Amino acid sequence: MPGPIQSIERAAAILRLLARGSGRLGVGEIAESLELAKGTAHGILRTLQGVGFVEQDRDTGKYQLGAALLHLGTSYLDVNELRSRAINWADALAARSGEAVRIGAPLEGRVLVVHHVFRPDDSLQTLDVGTLLPLHATALGKVLLAYDTTLVASLRTGEPEAYTRRTLVTQTAIKRACGKVREAGWAVENGEMISGEAGIAAPIRGHGGIVVGAIGVSGPVERICEPDGGPSPRLLGHVRDAARAVSRDLGASRW
Description:
This protein is α+β, with helices and mostly antiparallel strands. It has 9 helices and 8 strands. It has helices at 6-20, 27-34, 38-50, 67-97, 139-146, 149-155, 171-184, 221-224, 233-249; strands spanning 54-56, 63-65, 100-107, 110-117, 132-133, 187-190, 197-205, 211-220. The strands form 2 sheets. It has a 6-stranded antiparallel sheet with strand order 5-4-3-8-7-6, with helices on both faces. Helix 2 packs across helix 3. It is elongated. The mean pLDDT is 89.
């Protein structure tokens, strides 16, 4: 097995040092603290700055942790907290609804499935944790789109994929759907990603009411939706109750 890569170890040590400090550090201070040559420390810092993991103050020339690294850490913590807080409620939702339950969070213009509870029967099912789903063709994704303008903007960079003839692929249709989600407080998909399958989802909110994820049920259209294509009132009630419960656990006082 190959040994550790020294440059990566040194870069990690610099990041730990900056994270532990209360302010910015200069090249000399970093080099002295880690017993590195000043030129070596400067080269590593420039590389870390290039990828956004550290930032340099223009006036003092000193370094601090960069926005890219802070965002990476925050996203990781948010997803894991979301999952840990929602597990029990997701299990209860699956038991009450009799359907599969998924919890999603935004990641790089898609929906990351951070938790999945199988439908409580003996049917063969595949675990979806870690799967990336399209925003515009799923109930989970529509919820996230409705409350995040940056996600909506990400769809404008390319033409949304048509998974079935029901998939919303125009900006007008997607914008209209997002408006309905904000008005109703929930989203539904009906054969838009996979023909014959449907889903219902509601937003999960954190501190200040910001939407940090979505929770929903999915299954065959005939079990999830009414004959007119709308969501089953019983399932919709269970989904919204679960979303409110998780939101309260995450500190959303208004839920």
